[in-house]
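Q: What does the assembly look like in three dimensions?
Context provided by user:
Components: four
Sequences:
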Amino acid sequence: MGFQESFKALSDPTRREILNLLRAGSMSVGEILEHFSITGASLSHHLSILKHAGLIDDEKQGKYMIYTLNTTVLDDILNWMMSLKGGEHHEES
Amino acid sequence: MGFQESFKALSDPTRREILNLLRAGSMSVGEILEHFSITGASLSHHLSILKHAGLIDDEKQGKYMIYTLNTTVLDDILNWMMSLKGGEHHEES
DNA sequence: TAAACATTTAGATAGTTATCTAAATATCTA
DNA sequence: TAGATATTTAGATAACTATCTAAATGTTTA
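A: Here is the predicted structure of the complete assembly.
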């Protein structure tokens, strides 16, 4: 769940679109899947990467797995980017 | 020079460290190279990717190539990330 | 102008990753 | 409980990428 994992997770357009979708609210895998032309297996792979990066949380609800956006990790990235722009010193890379 | 190229460029730790270095001011390839344990050829590859992503600019000064941080592209990314956090609608993905 | 220096380009290789199909696991419902 | 539904895991493949060495290009200096 470090910086590197977060950036890698964000570097794929499908995964960024998943995050965009989840802004509207939590969704099951099937609901997310409707917005893409990939198999469920591929989507599951992307969700796994986003989860390990801490960008989404999951919760099993009966037969469905519900995914929710988690924006806390984004703060670290925002912080780093602001420091690039602002010029303040910052350790993480 | 789209969103995708920027994120891909940022997803490599060497490239992020290059950006960190350039916060202190413009540098030649040789100066940047001192901070890494890779060959000049590999560094040149990374610089090329950062340049195509619009994250750095270059300028030839005699026998040296000087690279400079360009933070304008970061604004788009910051905007997108803020919208993920804030929940406002935003098109780019 | 020849040699030295700075950087990039070409070509190769090993590791990573996005995707697929098929199979496994888990849950619900008839 | 058997079958249907939802999601994940396993295994394979093609594409991509970070790195290297070697060679090419461009610039300065002796």
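Follow-up: The CA atoms of residues 55 and 81 of chain B lie 17 Å apart.
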